[in-house]
Amino acid sequence: MRYLLTERFGFANDCVLILTDEERDPCRQPTKANIRMAMHWLVQGCSSGDSLVFQFSGAGAQVPDCDGDERDGMDEAICPVDSFQQGPILDDEINQAIVRPLVHGVKLHAIVDACHSATVLDLPYRCTFSKQYGCLRWMDERPLNGACKGTSGGKAVLISGSSNGKTQMSVLPEPNATIGALTHSFIKALECEPRTTYGHLLTSMRTTMRAGAGNCSLQGQEPQMSSACKFDINCEPFCM
């Protein structure tokens, strides 16, 4: 992901903050406190023209919704390395941290590679493949209680995996390198076609997931996208 951002999309190396399990520095481990800090760092001082990226690859979870803003009665969450001790980070908090602060002219792309991640940013609209119509269609995910889950004028898009509760791993060509199925298909699609539309990106990712990769099957995984607002996915160019 760092390579993709810096070499393909022109992000500066010193503008990329990475938290990983392998870090010895306790401030660079993906604990609940550090992830919260990183989300605050990401949006702090954002202004028109800024492009932000949030990526999470790890475990996801669902917990009962306590404030009545979920249509299915469940909150989605990401699980930090210390989630057994500190608890997961709920979609309500993620939305408040990195979606609501986005002002006009700021765009955020989130790539969340975890089970139960389809609506983990709590965005109002979700785009998924419709079996009935055989194409990508928008679904209204706005809370029934009227809670506002949009931005402060900016653009927010989440690309995530299907919520089937199963962990799928994909092996990249590099020796001993493993990444999540969604991350693998996302990178592969953009490496093959850097200039693409949102609709074509999802279709390419879906093809990769259905075909499988290496010795691991990715079948059963479905890429999904949610957004703060609906747009023409077949015409809108994808650009981070």
TrEMBL record:
Gene3D superfamilies: 3.40.50.12660. InterPro entries: Metacaspase, Pept_C14_caspase. GO terms for molecular function: cysteine-type endopeptidase activity. Coiled coil: none annotated. Residues 1-227 form the Peptidase C14 caspase domain. GO terms for biological process: proteolysis. GO terms for cellular component: cytoplasm. Pfam families: Peptidase_C14. Belongs to the peptidase C14B family. This is Peptidase C14 caspase domain-containing protein.
